[in-house]
Amino acid sequence: MTAASKDNRPGWQQIAAGWLLLALVTLPAVQLTSDAGTTPFWSSLGRNFVFLLGIQLPWVLATPGLWRLCRRWPLGMDSDTRVIGQLLLVGLPLIPTLSLAGWVLGHGLSHLPAALPLPAHWPRAVLATSLFALPTYFAVIGIGQTLAYIQRYRRRGELLAQAREQALASRLNHHFLFNALNAIGSLGYRDAARADAALAQLGELLRTLLDNAAIVPLREEVSNAMAFVELQQLLQDRPIALQLQADPDAWQAMVPSLLLQPFIENALRFAQASTVPDAAITLSMTADDGILQIVIGNPCGSAPPGRGIGVDASRQRLHALHGSRASVDVNRAAGHCHTRIRLPMPARREAA
Questions:
Q1: In DSSP terms, which residues pair with 263 in a beta bridge?
Q2: Cβ(188)–Cβ(229) under 8 Å?
Q3: Residue 226 belongs to what H/E stretch?
Q4: Does 197 lie in the same domain as 342?
Q5: Alpha carbons 313 and 343: distance in angstroms, whole number
């Protein structure tokens, strides 16, 4: 169970608030059925409320344990008949025990400061309280089973998102490696020295990427992107410059590894095909209100914005990681393409 999943569990404050709400809802019925005698209304109401709190206190203390049992014996995961039988066996001794402790505690607290003996009819009162506690027990178990299901559902979603992100990242790595090796193979027929240099550069880049975590600092990701540009400059006959601009706050961002590579590769491909002299790729990064925005610009002439395998995989990867909070928009204006990537900026501790 992850720390995030543990944080989603209700704490003592939520549990106490729930039982307090139940006491307030039950109080009018108890007040109407109690024999107040000559006791003033507000005094009788306060005594009944304290009595209810005393009755519920053992249940408050037992609720976390019952919910742990629900996580240990969840419905819908194994034999439901066996699980229901186990929970009923737990309830048989637990319900009268909690009812007895609660009734005695409630009676004692509601008659303070005087220490009154238990009335003669207390066994019958405890039995009645136990019968009324049956639906209470089933309600606590039902809430516990619901919380256990929600936690399993969230954890399953986390694992599926992680598996999908890993699959997309693996697809991205394979796409990058295939393109690079294919380009080096073609270059080898024309310029063996440059092909050797490109192969060495590819090896160094792959060694760095293999050591990377799934989430890396933006500075590290930009460094890898610049190494990729250097590799492409060795592979292409027409070197393309990369112009970098970043806000100081943007460097604090944590981003998925290989986030920029497919977009830089796409920009390089269009810049190489353009007829603009001294073509360059611009990479700007800004941070505003917890959102990191990365804009990649490149000349593309009249060609429509590209949607290669790597770009599509990156879109899916960002969606798997951040859902609708992340977006990738590609547009063309005045012979230039601009790719705008937006994603939330988690803190380093949260990203880890």
A1: none
A2: no
A3: helix 218-235
A4: yes
A5: 16
Clarify whether residues 84 and 229 are in a common domain. Answer: no
> Are 138 and 88 within one domain?
yes
Same-domain check for residues 285 and 136: no
Domain that holds residue 258: 191-351
**Are the beta carbons of 335 and 306 closer than 8 angstroms?**
no
Q: What is residue 3's predicted lDDT score, i.e. its pLDDT?
A: 45
User: What size, in residues, is the chain?
Assistant: 352
Strands 241-246 and 280-288: parallel
Residues 141 and 244 in one domain: no
Spatial contact of 54 and 106, defined as CB atoms under 8 Å apart: yes
Q: How far apart are CA 208 and CA 30, in angstroms?
A: 71
Q: Which two tokens stand for residue 108?
A: 């004692």
**Within 114-241, where are the H helices?**
122-190, 192-211, 218-235
User: Between vectors from CA 300 to CA 298 and to CA 305, what angle results, nearest 5°?
Assistant: 95
Q: Round the average pLDDT of the chain to a whole number and report it.
A: 78
Burial bucket for residue 290 (CB in 10 Å: 0-12, 13-18, 19+): exposed
CA distances from 80 to 73, 85, 137 (A): 9, 8, 18
DSSP single-letter state for residue 345? -
pLDDT at 267: 84
Question: Hunting for tokens 């206190």 — which residue is that?
Answer: 57
Write down the pTM of the prediction: 0.50
Confirm if 27 and 45 have CB atoms less than 8 A apart: yes
Q: pLDDT at position 52, please?
A: 86
Select from 114, 132, 157 the last residue of a domain. 157
Quote the tokens at residue 130.
Answer: 């136990």
What backbone phi and psi angles, to 5 degrees, belong to 330?
-120, 125
**pLDDT class of 295 with cuts at 50, 70, 90:** very high
Task: Classify residue 37 as left (phi > 0), alpha (psi -120 to 50) or beta.
Answer: left
Over the range 87-115, which residues count as b (16 or more CB within 10 Å of their CB) and which as e? beebbeebbbebbbbbbbbbbeebeeeee
